Amino acid sequence: MGSRGVAKWRWWVVVVAWSWGAAARTLCPARCACDDALRAASCANAGLEIVPIQLNPEATHINLTHNVINNLLYTFAFYTQLTVLDMSYNKIQDLGSKNFENNMEMTHLNLSHNLLKHLDKDTFIGLRKLVDLDLSNNMISNVHAQTFKDLSVLERLDLSNNKLVSFQPDSFEPLSTLKILSLRNNSILDIPSANLFFVVHLEILDLSENLIQRVPRHGMPYLKELKHLDLNSNIIEEIDQLGFHNLPSLRHLDLSDNNMTTIPTSAISKLSNLSHLYLSGNFFQNITALSFQSLFHLKHLHLSRLYDLDKIDSRAFVDNINLQKIWMNENLKVGEVPSRLFHGNPKLTHIYMRNNALETLEASHFPIDRLQELEISGNPFICNCSLLWLWKLGRESEINSKRAGNDSLTLKIDEEDVKCAGPAHLNGVLFVQIPESEFGCSSGWVIVAVVVLTVSIVISVVGGVLYFMGPLKKCKGDKSKQVMTSVMLNGDVSKLGNGLGYSTRSREQENKREVDRYLMIGSSVTNNFHSLNPPWHSVDKNPYYQEDSEEHIYQQFAYETIPPHRTPEKPHIVYV
């Protein structure tokens, strides 16, 4: 049969089918449900092996899911008004060529969960209004470079759960309006950068569950509208610092379940608008200071299942001032949390730290005043005095929750699932069942110890001061006596300035007054008794002493100059 014969035969089938449908518009095949008012027909789970041709030819919605249909040859040519077609969960192996040529009104086509192995050049010819194409869960390994040439308004393409390894160059060139692309669970080895270059309006890209090993420099082309990038469950070991440089609008980034050993700080720090970051299931050994540098808009952070993690720096999250929720579950080597780890996160309300290796917690670890939910079950806690604060906080939260109702913003703690691992007599006991006395805290001896220690410190300080000040005063007093005696005996007033070791200004003024006093007395004695002679001869011929004096001039001088409370010393008389 020639090409003319085939074309004529097709036309005849279409005419006959249309005539039959028009005649039986109010009829509906067995095991199908039809609604002529809505122009919809559903033959789901009807056991059909072929597409029925007796449906309403003006139908706009046809549901043929969960049947055993294995081909589409010459079946949709007369459904020219069709807009939505669902043929998922069938046995279709080949879509053929130009089978949708007359369905120019179609907007949604679902061919998922079939047995498709390839897509030909003219498979989707005629679908110029198609906006949603679902080809997921097939066995597609090859896509022709011209397969999508008529899909100029397509917005969503799902090729997940197939056997794709790569794409031919320019395969996505017609898809300039594409917004959602899912390539999840294939065997893709590299990020298809050359093809992604054409989908300039892409907003969501799913490349998870593939075999991508690295993100090279500019591995992601410039996609200014991309908001969600999923790369989880690959084998990524390395991300170049400019790997995500061309994604200015990215909000969600999933890098969980890869093979990274260090947090890619230099790469993710370029994502200034990132709000959700998933890094669980990697092989990080520590979370260093500023690991999430410049991520000022980060709200949700997932750091669970990091089985090699054993150290977290207290400054790890200081840049994340808008962080609201953090997941740190199942980190089996994390035995302690740095003090005040979350105090740089003023908006943090939810903390999840279940199934770690924590033996104790301190209240200073958490921003208790603004926290709304805290999950800590599954840790081997040692239930002693160090956890009494948590026990009291749980009781207080439970009471407040009952008073305010379930819609309140009181702190929720999963204390009902928290069990003690020690001491031995509390092993396996639920945290909420332990009485307060079992925590071994006694505030009485603490107060006594503090008071005794304080008094001891005060006594030691005062005693030390007195100990050092006593000899100093005695030394100064003895030296002052020697200087005074020198002045009285020899009139050497100059020694007053050097002999008295006083340093304060008031002491200097007092010394000056003493000097003036002695000068005045000495002058008076000299003026009144300069013609008198002493009854003895002075060895040093002091001018104060004269030979013709009838009175003991030295004794009189001593009585007038020495203060009344001091006993005058006897003069040293030398006989010749």
Question: Explain this structure to me?
Answer:
- By secondary structure, this protein is an alpha/beta fold.
- Among the domains are: 380-447, no CATH class; 483-576, no CATH class.
- Helices cover 23% and strands 12% of the residues.
- It contains eight helices and 25 strands.
- It has helices at residues 3-23, 193-196, 265-268, 388-404, 443-490, 495-499, 505-529, 553-561; strands at residues 33-35, 40-42, 61-63, 84-86, 108-110, 118-119, 132-134, 142-143, 156-158, 180-182, 204-206, 214-215, 228-230, 238-239, 252-254, 276-278, 286-287, 300-302, 311-312, 325-327, 350-352, 373-375, 381-382, 412-413, 420-422.
- The strands form five sheets. It has a 17-stranded mixed β-sheet.
- Helix 7 (505-529) runs antiparallel to helix 8.
- It is elongated.
- 30% of the residues are buried.
- Residues 1-24, 491-504, 521-562, 564-568 and 570-576 have low confidence and may be disordered.
Strand fraction band?
Answer: 5-15%
Number of helices: 8
Percent helix range? 10-25%
Distance between the termini: 172 Å
Overall, the morphology is elongated
Q: How many strands, which pairing sense, and closed or not: the largest β-sheet?
A: 17 strands, mixed
Low-confidence stretches: 1-24, 491-504, 521-562, 564-568, 570-576
Total beta strand runs: 25
Rg, Å, rounded = 49 Å
Structural class: alpha/beta
**What's the assembly state of these chains?**
single chain
Mean pLDDT: 81
